[in-house]
Amino acid sequence: MEIIASPKNDHIKLAKKLTVKKYQKDYDRYLLEGPHQVHDAIASGAEPDRIYATSKYMQDRELRTYYNRMFEISSDVAQALSSAKTSQGVFAVMKMPHNQLPKPLSGSFLMLDAIQDPGNVGTLVRTADAAGVKNVILGKQTADEFSPKVLRAMQGSQFHVNVVSADLIKLTTALQRSGVPVYGTELNDEAKPYASMAKTENFGLIMGNEGNGMRPELLARTDANIYIPMRGRAESLNVGVAAGVVLFHLLS
Amino acid sequence: MEIIASPKNDHIKLAKKLTVKKYQKDYDRYLLEGPHQVHDAIASGAEPDRIYATSKYMQDRELRTYYNRMFEISSDVAQALSSAKTSQGVFAVMKMPHNQLPKPLSGSFLMLDAIQDPGNVGTLVRTADAAGVKNVILGKQTADEFSPKVLRAMQGSQFHVNVVSADLIKLTTALQRSGVPVYGTELNDEAKPYASMAKTENFGLIMGNEGNGMRPELLARTDANIYIPMRGRAESLNVGVAAGVVLFHLLS
Lengths: 252, 252
What we know:
The structure is a homodimer.
Chain A: H1 10-17, H2 21-27, E1 29-33, H3 35-43, E2 48-53, H4 55-58, E3 70-72, H5 75-81, E4 90-95, E5 108-112, H6 118-131, E6 135-138, H7 148-154, E7 162-165, H8 168-177, E8 182-184, E9 192-193, E10 203-207, H9 216-219, E11 224-227, H10 239-250
Parallel strand pairs in A: 2-3, 5-6, 5-10, 6-7, 8-10, 8-11, 9-11
Antiparallel strand pairs in A: 1-4, 2-4
């Protein structure tokens, strides 16, 4: 079989474009990178359109089912496709999932209000997955789910959790109408220590922007605010760590 | 007063060197960047040798005490000194702290075994601070405390917590001799769910390398291993999130 040895190959140029939001939308496809992400996609039943792999991965056992969609690439092409410093040598072109909110609206929802750092967004999805949260909702101005940095930090958790983009104000109202309480995480006079909250499988938990916290109009709609009492002198926690502490309490 | 307008100014060249471990050792100084870090240093009683600031910060109220050690720099010089994409315009040359292990050995210790990502190391120190941990111990192959990325992620928590570099195997033995149990975080047959551990102010908690976990020879010396039961399908948690969940349980 021929090896794709030029980064100017049309398929490779297209695959590279699929790391950029505009093209992801146009083609309804995005690019996964690295064995962990690609294996996890396949294990979760997501079907890759095409897999590009260096010789090392051409015989990979877990990719075998898709041997007819695999194309060997040179290490130069792998490096050109990679968004990491050092390419891991395997890529998959995937269909966009078009996830929907569950019907009826029930279960657990981690809601991200303008979380801008891609690493934080990815870690939040991974943490939600580990804690057993069913849905992660990306509000406006939250880093894009299919950007390479978010994909890397999610470590495949997007295949285990229902990740959806939605308007958080509308969703808050809808959740409340369905009997699901929505908790904010803004420190104010009425905020309750997280350990005092009853354990539950039905809730929305909103995490706000790294610098500015939650939008006031969203905060005003929450059923309660939760805070993490700090014994030390740090002013705040990293947003992923804070979500982890609260979610492992609520769902344990 | 004169403005330093050239990045080739000798003091500026030296300040820039103080972001690199070799020079930090030679000069026994390191460079802090950004108003948050510099304010926090001063609020904690650490005395800057020199402060370099753009005009915006020359009248800063919190820096006033040190006006005689302040030097105005142009925005070009600020950008040259900065390790961020966009400089925040204020820098401080600080003495290395030379922290020591507490005597007698008691209290809480977060021990980092070859944690390599600077963002993770910084987040771990910040999380330890928030949870009320007194000491963070950096083992071999852990990212350097005074690298710009670690400093940024710590958000000033190094001024609230005793951060020390030490050999983790020797420390584990010494803690145990002092009656302080040391917990590992390696999933094995005897690992105990974190929520079953008694709350305590006296413990060592070891977090291992992001990919490989703890070194076996260190693991073999622990008094118990703790794990975080996961309800979802994520294979693991980010190391900072995992430490947060366990520390807020132990110290709450």
